[in-house]
Write a structure and sequence with these properties.
Helix content is 31%, strand content 24%. With 444 residues, it is α+β, with helices and mostly antiparallel strands. The chain has 2 domains: 269 residues, DD-peptidase/beta-lactamase superfamily (Beta-lactamase, 3-Layer(aba) Sandwich), CATH 3.40.710; 83 residues, Lipocalin. Strand 12 and strand 13 form a beta hairpin. Helix 2 runs parallel beside helix 6.
Amino acid sequence: MKKTVLLLLALGLVSGSFAQNLAAELDSVMQAYQKVQHFNGTVLVAKNGQLLLEKGYGYENFATGIPNDTQTVYMIASITKQFTSAVVLKLVEQHKLALTDPLSKFFASYPGGRKITIYNLLTHTAGIPDYTQDSVFMASHKGLTVSQALTIYNKASFAPGTEWKYSNQGYQLLGEIIANVTGKTYFQAVRQYIFCPLNMTHSGFDFANLKSRDKATGYWTYPGDGKNEEASIIDSAASFSAGAIYSTVGDLYKWHQGLQAYKIVPKPLMDQAYMPFKNNYGFGWFVDSLYGRRVLAHSGDTYGFKSNIARITGDDVCVILLNNIEDEEMRGSLTNDLLAVLYQRPYHLPIFRKEVQLSQAMLKKYTGTYEMARQFSVEVILDGGQLWIQPSGQPRSQIYAEKEYFFFSKVVDGQVEFIPDASGNIVSIVLYQGGHQMSGKKIK
């Protein structure tokens, strides 16, 4: 008996030491990303019900010097879609909705509504058009609900169920359907079915009017040289059930725990939510795999804020990243590095790179077209005194000189090396990203 007790005590000490080592390594990853200005926010990492890291990095307000901490409140943008889908499934459980219900059941005047189902809306396979990208339409149709706008702007992208296209408007329609079925506002329904049962007391919707010392200020870019470029806040009525929620890492961890225990929606319905239909998308969750385990994840992106939540439900793993700088694009890499720490796998940390200034004549030498592979090339462009790189079919991105012939990106962990010949003329290019590299020959 005595030996058994001593053995259990020893196991407990080893377990505690391992957790401390994990926490220290996770923190070192976060510090590396913060050092290169690729994270400014709050993180939470947990496994098997144990919080391994819950900590703020950088500032919730650069002007006042208030640091981010575990209580800081952030906009979570499209992570909102998980909550919308959960309320829909709750109504399905209560037999107030069916996944096969047509849109015409709720909006009789919607063109083609008989062919669009709740399931299509949840999985982004409804073919709902994005009227918000049409500035002329938006200017002349202010104040309309989503359903009213889509009755007018009804240029379907594709036949329901045949393709996948991410649609904020589809999820906003789900919010209107929730209000229609419950007789409450969408916001009231989310509070009733999710926030209150899970005691998510730091979550809500009207971020613009939130009065809290813990409210983060959102920034377009990482403040520097005395420039604190604050982002405007999108009104909750506009983002609505596709992106209006604000929260903290602690509240989102309660969300994870509630889902793990099936406190909100029963397992058979959550299993459907986690089942991808097209493009690895379920109901408010992207479904992928890592290290042979299923990963459920979703990111959020709105003015001044970016976020990510990733869950490996089979191991009760949860990683939450809330960031109050909008141009940050390292969420996926950072999430994967944190998961690599948890599963004792190799990972690649960003390196701090200092920008140097090169002459316009030198920058012009690098411009041209580089063939990377068959039917794939990149353009290097000099515009506004800055160098830009644009892969075929993708947006262009600015690159910055670390030294002659070697450039780096500030929004992804990527570098560009230009290779000269003996005469100093650029003849090829090498792209580096995530431990991989690709070479290409200059063709013009």
